[in-house]
Each structure stands twice: as structure tokens, then as C-alpha cells.
Amino acid sequence: MKRTAFAFAGLLMLATAPALGQGQPPLRCAVDGTFAPHAMPRLGGGVEGFNVDLFQAIARKLGRELTIDSASFSGLIAAMNAGRYDFLCAPTTVTRERAENLLFTEGYIFTEYQFGIRRGSAPIASLEDLRGKTISVNKGSAYDSWAQANAARYGFTVQAYDTNTDAVQAVIAGRAYANLAGNTVVKFAAARNPQFVPDFVMKETRAHWAAPLRRDSTELRDQLDWAIECLKKDGTIAQLSEKWFGAKPGADDAENTPFPGRGVPGLPGYDPTPHTRGC
Q1: For all residues of the chain together, what is the average pLDDT?
Q2: Is the dihedral of CA 150, 154, 155, 157 positive or negative?
Q3: SS3 letters for 215-253?
Q4: Residue 43, in any domain of the structure
Q5: Which of 123, 126, 229, 239 gets the most CB atoms within 10 Å of its CB?
Q6: Under DSSP, is residue 103 helix (H, G, I), strand (E, B) or coil?
Q7: Around Cβ 253, how many Cβ atoms within 10 Å?
Q8: How far is 93 from 201, CA to CA, in rounded Å?
């Protein structure tokens, strides 16, 4: 496990959120440090990416120090529930099942399931085209869960890898026909490897990516939610999205949309109480 510490203790931060940050210990979170472009190894050590930048900005807004650990995604939720982390900085898809067991902030970006294939392969026109083929996924992710649950229905087999980078390489090497991941990850991988191209998008899978916490962390969830909304309003999250994903988010995308209440509307753990603290 790799660790990168980010300290935010300047006068600007204290002026931004003095009641939230003063005298409190560093926040602890974790990412999958191989999940580009959300978190990936940085020359000189540590990790960089959209989620690293985002949660640095959130920590600055709260006037807190932040420690980010890098580890395999498949073990992050268990480690958080065991008390190792206060929340996860890793992009985590909010599902009903997860929301029944975890507490989530509001979504900071929308994700859709997308397949990436090797250049020259026959495009996927529908899920029926996967019959008899092999799909690669990041072990423990929501894409892994979907693939395992639908393999028999659509007649494909699943290969699960510890990192999505390895899952993409399986496609390029011909061990798998397609990689299933989030749209941002597929596009980023394709931009950096001409042998890998974005393909079929599952439009019905649009969901929130949000920060998960333990069920007993309501106060911290509300603080993170407040900071996320403020960073949407001042354009910070939209700017980070364009920087890392190469496209300006639309006005109705999650990067620009402060959601009412706290958490993800319509799912367990959502609190409709309006934010009263200004930015």
C-alpha cells in the first residue's frame, strides 16, 4: 500500500472554513491508485488524477489536512468499515445495495457503463453481441458485479483483474474481447492507447459517483456534501472534469448540478434537509 500526504494549513483555508477545520485531525481516505484518470502513479511518487485533485480541493474547503492511501479497490470498502479510512476518495458507484450499507455524499460526477474494444474488432451493437465472448473487469467494482450477474443471461465469460489497467491490457492482448468500465475511464485509456477504442454505452446505467462513508459518519458526510456543492457552484469540479477527461461537462451534468439535501436523492441514507451554510 502506498501513501501520499497532502497538508492544507494555510490562512486561506482557515478563512474559508474555520469552524470546520481548526484543531481537527487529518482526514484519511483511499483510492485505487491504478484507476486512471481518477488516480494513477505520479512521477516522483504519490498519485495524481481527477479524484486526487477533487478531494484536495474538498480538504482545502474544509480547512483540513488529508492523507490519501493507494490500494486495490476490492479491499477499500472493507478497510473503511474497519476504521482505517474516514471515507473513500475512489470513484464509487452509488447503488441501492451499497446505499443500504454505507452513507454517501451527493454525486460529483455521473458514470455510465461503457465497453472498450481492441481497434479492428467488430463493434458491439447490443448486449447480445457479447455471446460467446470474454469480458474483462476491475475486480470488486460495480462493473464486475454487473458482469457476474449477467454473464449467463448474455452468454459471455468474465475475467476479473486487480486493476482496470490490467483489464484493458487483456483486451489489447486478445485475452478478452471487451473491457467494461466507466465512460471516463474507457475514454482516458483510449486516448493513451491507439489499439483500444471506446465502444457500446449502456445508457440505462447512468448513476452517481460519490464518496462513501461508514453509516455512523453523518456529520462528516454532511461536511463533505457541503464542500462538494460549493465546488460545483464556483466551477471547480467542472474545471477538473475538463482537465482530466478532455471535455467540458454540460450544464445538467453532475459536475455543475448541486443536488438538494445531502446524499443521493431517492436512495437509502438520503437526507432532504437543505444546506443552510453558505459557501
Answers
A1: 91
A2: negative
A3: CCCHHHHHHHHHHHHHHHHCCHHHHHHHHHHCCCCCCCC
A4: yes
A5: 229
A6: strand
A7: 16
A8: 16
My answer on whether 93 and 222 are in the same domain is: yes
Rounded-to-integer distance, Cα 94 and Cα 72, Å: 19
Residue 186 lies in a domain: yes
The number of beta carbons lying within 10 Å of the beta carbon of residue 10 is 11
Q: How far apart are CA 82 and CA 24, in angstroms?
A: 21
Ramachandran category for residue 59: left, alpha or beta (phi over 0 → left; psi -120 to 50 → alpha): alpha
CATH number of the CATH domain containing 58: 3.40.190.10
Give me the domain span that covers residue 75.
Answer: 2-108+211-256
Reported confidence tier of residue 1, pLDDT bands at 50, 70, 90: low
Average pLDDT over residues 64-89: 95
Same domain, residue pair 220 and 182: no
Q: Report yes or no on 246 lying in a domain.
A: yes
Question: pTM here?
Answer: 0.75
Nearby residues of 88 by Cβ (< 8 Å), 6 or more positions away: 29, 30, 31, 76, 77, 80, 211, 212, 213
Over residues 24-39, the mean pLDDT reads 92
AA letter at 104: F
The arithmetic mean of pLDDT across residues 19-40, rounded, is 86
Instruction: State pLDDT tens for residues 82-98.
Output: 999 999 999 998 999 99
24 lies in a domain?
yes
Residues 12 and 139 in one domain: no
Question: Quick one: 216 and 123 in the same domain?
Answer: no
Number of domains in the chain: 2
Whether residue 38 is found in the same domain as residue 175? no
Neighbours of 25 (CB within 10 A): 9
For the chain, what percentages of helix, strand and coil (3-state, to nearest 5) are there? Answer: 35, 25, 40
In whole angstroms, give the CA distance from residue 45 to residue 167: 24
Note whether 86 and 219 are same-domain residues: yes
Task: Looking at the structure, tell me whether residues 167 and 90 fall in a common domain.
Answer: no
